């Protein structure tokens, strides 16, 4: 799951990973058993930012990427799992709102114009999604 949180003027929220300082990303997470993709997006946004995604337009892009999981994070998955499917959502806010970080997951948050945010992300799928958002995707 990847959720791009952005303002109507396309400033994008990035979060710095606690387990990899210097790695910036959008909200990410895994689906719990029995959850729909929308429910996962709402839960992950709440857990990672304190925002209630039900209060703002949440868009399912009906797009997913398959990517190889970085070696350092493979232990989180089952034995032999090397790839992940990431479903793309976006959440549009009227303005940059303060967020409440989950300290075990993130060290810092910042709002950047979409072009800068795309450059800051360590994940190619996250960067590509931000570029698509900025280009009207």
Question: Overview of this structure, please?
Answer:
By secondary structure, the protein is of the alpha+beta class. The chain has helices at about 35-50, 115-120, 125-135; strands at about 1-5, 10-15, 25, 25-30, 60-70, 85-95, 105-115. The protein has a single domain (about 1-135), classed as Nucleoside Triphosphate Pyrophosphohydrolase (Alpha-Beta Complex), CATH 3.90.79. It has a four-stranded mixed β-sheet with strand order 4-1-6-5, sandwiched between helices. It is globular.
Please state the overall shape, judged from the principal axes of the Cα atoms.
globular
Contiguous helical run count: 3
By secondary-structure content and strand pairing, the structural class works out as alpha+beta
Structural domains: how many: 1
Using the coordinates shown, work out and report the CATH topology.
Answer: Nucleoside Triphosphate Pyrophosphohydrolase
Average pLDDT level:
93
Name the poorly predicted regions: none
Number of strands: 7
Instruction: Give the amount of beta strand, in percent.
Output: 25-35%
